[in-house]
Amino acid sequence: MGFISRIIFSFFSNLIALVVAGNFIPGFELTDNFVNLLITAGVFMLINIYIRPLIKMILSPLVILTLGLFTLVINAGMLYLLDILSENVTITGIEPLIYGTLLMTGVNLLLHFSAKFLS
Questions:
Q1: β-pair partners for 91
Q2: CA–CA gap between residue 27 and residue 32 (Å, rounded)
């Protein structure tokens, strides 16, 4: 898969994960405007492309010590950062943040594994 196709796939997988989390988790609210939803998915994709690898590199000793489980904490931090940066996402409390992180991680894993299986 080329770089551009990975970015496009990342954008759409984040869009699907945000929509699923917004529809199934109380306290995880998204805007109803489709254009704003696309912008939010783009912002989240940019956070995951530029900020997440830097944070993972800095916190890699914790990721190694916890056998990768600290990655969920990093994912929650990226989702919280999206809540701060975008007015189109509102996460009210720690419980929706945790559930949203788990659901979005699961959706992204499912989509990435199915894409690798189909290609």
A1: 28
A2: 15
Phi, psi at residue 106, to the nearest 5°?
A: -65, -45
Give the span between the Cα atoms of 59 and 37, in whole angstroms.
Answer: 30
Count of CB atoms within 10 A of residue 96's CB? 20
The predicted structure's pLDDT at residue 1: 63
- Alpha-carbon distance 46 to 91, whole Å? 19
The span from the CA of 10 to the CA of 17, in Å, is 10
Q: Give the total residue count for the chain.
A: 119
Bridge pairing between strands 89-91 and 28-30: antiparallel
Tens of pLDDT along 91-108? 999 999 999 999 999 998
